Amino acid sequence: MAIDMVQLKSAQAKLMQSKLMQSEWVQSNQRALKIAAGVLAGVFIILLALPLFINIDKFRPKFESVLTENLGRPVSLGELSLSVLSGSVSVSDLKIADDSAFSQSPFITAKSLKVGVEMLPLVFSKELNITGIVLDEPQITLIEAANGTWNFSSLGGASVKQQPTSKESGAPQNLTIGKLEIKNGRMSIGNANSSSSLQVYDNVNAEMTNVSAKTQFPFKLKADLPGGGTAEVSGNAGPLNPSNSARTPLDATINVENLDLASSGFVGPASGVGGLSDFKGTMNSDGNRVQGVGKISIEKVKLSPKGTPAAQTVNIDYSLNADLETRSITISQGDIGIGKATAQLTGKAQTQGEAKVLNLRLNAPNMPIDELQAMLPALGFTLPSGSKLQGGTLSADLAISGTLDQLVISGPVRMSNAKLVGFDMGSKLGSLSSFGGKASSNSDTTIQNASLNARMSPQMTNADSINVTIASLGVVTGAGSVSPSGALNFSMVANLETERSEARAERKGRDDRGGIPFSIQGTTSNPTFVADKVGLAASAAGNAVQGAISKKTGGTGVAAGAVGGRLGRKN
What is the pLDDT of residue 293? Predict the structure, then answer.
């Protein structure tokens, strides 16, 4: 019993000792926590107070000097403020001057600029080491001169006045920026001394890392396009060309969606070209030559001022080479697909001042007409009301030359085994008294073969050497024009099957220059057929002379045919 009491008292003593130790540990840790909290609070207060003791604005000349020397342009900064917690210096205003040959207005302005700096060297050694730059909502203006020089060509380069050496200014000879960002910017692009409005790209966001004038650096850029759509470009650029930064080597991937061609600035409004385009491709430049490969798809294509958007999508696979010195582009591959119809576009494009001058050739053999039907509205071409082309093929070998707003397209065009459904050529001709009901009527016009030489320009569309063979009707030849408003002016001659069979014996052995002349007037949607009375009179006179000479010469020939042909031909 006595032993149990001793053990109980010993256990109680140990418990009291343990509680005492726990109490002391808690009190000790509470003191440590209070001390740590006090230290942290002190550090936080010091960090908050540092900007009060470090006059960061005194570094403004150094900032301006570093940027001016590396950009080769005068740079002015507003008031500087320091954020120790984020390790950055904020600038209330930024202006980078333009090349004086272009403008006295700023090249870049930004309301806000953040510059990341290494804090320890700045606090303890007063050294300025830039780790990153963020331009918030900058306004950037890019201008191209008539000789192809851009206003950013002289950035960092030789055309700038000599700046103080790095030894005098304390600035590094080669500035390397860990990260350069542009956020929510606006970029305006245009030509110097031009009356045309600048093309504006909104929501420009760009990011470049390890930026240096002497090494290659990765970049990515995204922007909203004029009139809608977006563009994304990413790749590697550099080293910077010291004499012309526009000639800096570049390897990039380009992705464009919903580009509005009419609003893009790539084509003038007078050209009438329009549509919504998607584009994916690559671009590789050594600073002098550019190689480009890619695919383009265009919806709602429009190719004429009088045209309307087409329902068919146009797809293009291309490969090109550009010479930056001569400002010329050579298209080595331009495979065009319109459904099952294919064509090849090759040639050159040359920039002359603001104008883009084309010298191209379009080779389009045996294209199914059913695929091309939907493209006719885009060309501003209207068929007679209620009719449509069906079946057969169309071939063309066309030269395309001139500026984009004054293009001239010329060359031979051929059509085979097609049908103009809903248009009765026979009834149109048969209604003329000069045809005397000899033209057979059919609800559709079947074109066995048709050929002509075309010349299309903004001023007029001309068709020469027209030769059309129409089933059950005969051969129609002639020439004429279509005005920009669609007005027709054609002089034609019809050699009908019935007429030819009736007169074959009489004309045998003579130079056959017969046929019934007529003209086509009205519009492309509502053509009218008119008897050519002058042509008929000349033809009748010719036939009379032929008959008279034939009687005296025994119908042999050559002289009769020659004289009769002269009288029967329209000049």
Answer: 98
| pTM for the predicted model, two decimal places | 0.77
CB of 183 closer than 8 Å to CB of 205: yes
Q: What is the pLDDT of residue 103?
A: 87
Q: Find the helix or strand (DSSP H, E) in which 53 lies.
A: helix 2-53
From its phi and psi, is residue 35 left (phi > 0), alpha (psi between -120 and 50) or beta? alpha
Query: Of the candidates 332, 338, 331, which has an alpha carbon nearest to the alpha carbon of residue 297?
Result: 338
In tens, the pLDDT along 236-247 reads 999 888 888 889
Q: What are the angstrom distances between the C-alpha of 117 and each of 27, 130, 205? A: 42, 5, 22
Residue type, 565: G
Residue range 46-103, pLDDT digits in tens? 344 444 445 667 778 887 887 788 778 899 888 887 766 556 778 888 899 999 889 8
**CA pair distance 199, 227, nearest whole angstrom:** 9
DSSP code of residue 435 = G
Largest Cα span, the chain: 174
| Sequence-ordered strand ranges (E) for 497-538 | 516-522, 527-531
- β strands within 147-243, DSSP E: 177-191, 199-211, 217-224, 230-237
User: DSSP 3-state assignment of 409?
Assistant: strand
* Confidence (pLDDT) at 337: 96
For residue 135, the 8-state DSSP code is E
